[in-house]
Design goal:
Layout (H helix, E strand, L loop, with lengths): L1 H17 L3 H22 L3 E8 L5 E4 L5 E2 L5 H16 L11 E3 L21 E3 H10 L3 H11 L1 H10 L14 H5 L5 E2 L1 H12 L8 H9 L17 E8 L2 E8 L6 E8 L4 H24 L16
Antiparallel strand pairs: 1-2, 1-9, 3-6, 4-5, 7-8, 8-9
Helix pairs in contact: 2-10, 3-4, 3-5, 3-6, 3-9, 4-5
């Protein structure tokens, strides 16, 4: 009898060892995601960098996360962060800080290329608030609106904000469409990990607090033509900012998936085909969403019970 009991206990112990714990099962999903990203990189004629952060658990996935990439318009996330940071200071009584309600009268001298909305407004007459300018900067990537905001918040203050967060590789070095500065090597840059960190700290209220934080993400989630949300459900809120230069395509943002929000930053450079770079961003975004969506809807063992469906026995 004792021998039989020992055999039963041994078999039970073996079965327990054979079944990976829930955390290990979830880790396998992350490894599948990493493999998918590796396949995208293998087929892309260019350089790819990725940083993904699970905002629920803190788990990260990076590929060339420390490499410095030109940011193009994605650097406008840092400008927006400093605007809201100053707006919060202004509302606490600090002098000389930009507030969202501060007004600006459109000037012809401020216009630069790729300023389709600002360029269509009546100079000397049309008034906009800083929040209006921020919306134009995010929604249509209006470069004149961005440059006005850079003047208003101060390039040095953007740098101080980034330094305060320990983001040494993320730099706003020039205004938009300053080709001379770009030719001199003063490019706006960041790394996938640092942009991920900036968005994570914004999400957790470490740079801007409520109620301005909710408005920050509301502006950043303004509908725009971009690659991260291209293959995601239309109703899903994605607060992101893409960037495009010759040979460069980027997109960084927060995906507000119910029960499993996450940060995703995908950067490409040295592209032989810019369209291929855009497709790579969308493919990685779709793969990340598929992973987080399963984690959000499933139990710790992977069982999904959809509303109105009892499932199979």
């Amino acid at each position: 009898m004792t021998k039989l009991l020992s055999i039963v206990l041994l078999l039970a112990s073996g079965a327990a060892c054979a079944a990976p714990p829930p955390a290990e099962k979830q880790q396998l999903l992350w490894e599948h995601l990493r493999a998918t990203i590796g396949e995208v990189e293998r087929h892309l004629d260019g350089v790819l960098g990725v940083a993904i952060l699970d905002l629920s658990t803190g788990q990260e996935l990076t590929l060339h996360g420390e490499e410095v990439f030109p940011q193009a318009s994605s650097i406008k996330i840092a400008v927006l962060a400093e605007l809201y940071h100053q707006a919060e200071q202004a509302r606490r009584g600090a002098a000389g800080k930009a507030d969202l309600s501060d007004r600006y009268v459109v000037r012809a001298a401020d216009l630069v290329p790729d300023s389709d909305i600002m360029g269509g407004l009546t100079a000397g007459v049309t008034q906009l608030t800083n929040r209006d300018l921020a919306t134009l900067m995010v929604a249509v990537s209006d470069n004149a609106a961005t440059n006005v905001l850079i003047d208003r918040v101060g390039m040095d203050n953007v740098a101080a904000l980034l330094d305060g967060q320990g983001l040494r590789q993320t730099r706003l070095r020039r205004k938009m469409m300053d080709l001379r500065a770009a030719a001199e090597g003063r490019e706006n840059v960041s790394t996938p990990r640092e942009m991920m960190t900036l968005l994570e700290r914004l999400y957790h209220g470490k740079i801007v607090g409520e109620p301005l934080l909710a408005d920050f993400f509301r502006v950043l989630a303004t509908h725009k033509d971009s690659w991260l949300p291209r293959e995601l459900p239309e109703e899903l809120q994605v607060a992101n900012k893409p960037g495009a230069l010759e040979g460069v395509r980027n997109d960084s943002g927060v995906v507000f998936l119910k029960d499993r929000p996450y940060v995703i930053c995908v950067m490409t450079t040295y592209l032989a085909s810019e369209r291929a770079g855009e497709q790579a961003i969308s493919a990685i975004s779709a793969a990340a969403f598929a992973t987080f969506d399963r984690l959000a809807r499933a139990s710790e063992y992977g069982r999904v019970v959809s509303p109105g469906n009892s499932g199979r026995r």
